[in-house]
Amino acid sequence: MIALSPLPALAAEEAPRVRDLTPNQLTDGPGLSAHEALAACAPAAAVAMARALGLDPTLDEAVDLARGVGWTAGFGMSGAKNQAHLLAYLGVAARLGDGEGIDWELVIRHVSGGNPVILIAPGHYFVAEGYDPETEVFDFGNSAAVLRAASGRRLFAPDELGSLGFGEPTQAIFLERPLLARSARGHVLFASKQASMRPRTLDAY
To answer: What is the CATH number of the domain that holds 53?
Structure first.
């Protein structure tokens, strides 16, 4: 179980100029209460995977489906297997990574091949949307930028994620889709998006 209360403070970023795969869990679910939005990182991650396949569920729709697989506003998503069930309900074929721990080389291959990857930390669900081999950092999109400790940043190396207040990722979920030989998402507007976002803060409970 991923306990999301109490939470480190979060930051609600301004809407990006280019649509992200991962919705902003704090602002993109108009039907969610503030408490529900704080716990909506797993449904937001599921929406990102669906968008990568050309599907377009809303965050509200993903949260409604998540309730049926064990998600609650008090505890978030109840485990990686239930997250996989949520993805299936959204029409997304995905698989859990083998064993505990993250195979970062495999994550790099998937992200560079056009497939985002969900990375599950003890208290948060991250989505790796892009990867820059020159700097060896991932673009975690809104899944990182909404965290107050990130100060609006979305670009992090794997060993920096633990500093964001939710622990280090220990499990991954991969799309069951062939990888592209070359993906334009390997450099997903890192510089322009990073420079354009100035987050405002939202106090945690």
So the answer is: 3.90.70.10
